[in-house]
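Design a sequence for this backbone.
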């Protein structure tokens, strides 16, 4: 698919009815300018909770994903200290021509800045009216969720899958216990966990030699180190010591002082990791066990 055009509308202190009306007008305009009528082929509603400091990075990660996952993407940018409750919106329609089809495929991107008290009621006030019925709902939460806060509980209550990246968190590994408390409410993914997959496959291939390992040195992010050793602890059913060497990505693993072979392939790009997580709906028991085990590493 090749991008055909992008239409946009902005509004301040607007209602959700204004947002829906804008989307309808943009689809009509796209059909007129693009020739054939457009076809909304959303496969999901994709929520992105992105505080201001995370917004540009969240937008960059999602660039180009509309072609792989046509969706209604809703960016929620909280600004609870901005005074009276209100919503500022930017609505855009990204349309693509598809080879062999006489229509355009269009994805909707809705950026909502939640001012004042609106930031504390994102699901009931904002999200639920904009969900596309009968389609799965994913939420990518940028930064560390304020576990126990009403905005977390509300969004977890309406999504099918919550996607986090514990590389973005402080308070590791104890905060993993709070993440584990959500497992019965929604399926959960962690991008830090996904980035250990190549290494987990490699380590599994070393069985049975790996069965007696006592100390694992991990050169990578703290999240990758804790989750990788948490996984080994949960699989082997016993304690394993972690020696963590900080690095921006997972660069190596030593088992009792011996370097493990390097797994084949290159580390996946951020959009590719997120794209893969958006194709999953079911829970991941191995991940959940690793998180619970990782939460015990600091004790």
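Sequence:
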């Amino acid at each position: 698919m090749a991008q055909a055009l992008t239409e946009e509308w902005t509004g301040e202190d607007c209602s959700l009815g204004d947002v829906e009306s804008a989307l309808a007008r943009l689809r009509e305009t796209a059909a007129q300018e693009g020739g054939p009528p457009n076809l909304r082929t959303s496969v999901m509603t994709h929520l992105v909770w992105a505080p201001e400091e995370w917004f540009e990075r969240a937008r960059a990660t999602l660039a180009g994903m509309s072609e792989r996952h046509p969706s209604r993407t809703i960016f929620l940018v909280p600004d609870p200290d901005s005074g009276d409750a209100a919503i500022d919106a930017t609505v855009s329609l990204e349309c693509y021509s598809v080879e062999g089809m006489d229509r355009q495929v269009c994805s909707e991107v809705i950026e909502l800045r939640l001012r004042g008290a609106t930031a504390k009621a994102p699901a009931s006030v904002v999200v639920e009216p904009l969900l596309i019925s009968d389609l799965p709902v994913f939420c990518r939460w940028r930064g560390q969720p304020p576990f126990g806060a009403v905005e977390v509980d509300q969004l977890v209550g309406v999504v099918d899958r919550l996607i986090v990246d514990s590389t973005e968190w402080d308070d590791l590994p104890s905060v993993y216990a709070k993440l584990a408390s959500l497992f019965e409410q929604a399926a959960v993914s962690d991008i830090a966990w996904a980035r250990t997959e190549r290494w987990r496959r490699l380590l599994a291939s070393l069985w049975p030699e790996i069965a007696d390992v006592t100390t694992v040195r991990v050169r990578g992010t703290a999240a990758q180190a804790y989750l990788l050793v948490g996984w080994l602890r949960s699989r082997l059913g016993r304690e394993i010591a972690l020696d963590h060497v900080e690095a921006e990505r997972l660069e190596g693993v030593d088992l009792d002082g011996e370097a493990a072979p390097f797994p084949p392939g290159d580390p996946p790009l951020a959009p590719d990791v997120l794209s893969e997580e958006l194709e999953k709906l079911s829970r991941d028991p191995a991940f959940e066990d690793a998180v619970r085990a990782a939460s015990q590493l600091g004790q």
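The mean pLDDT is 89.
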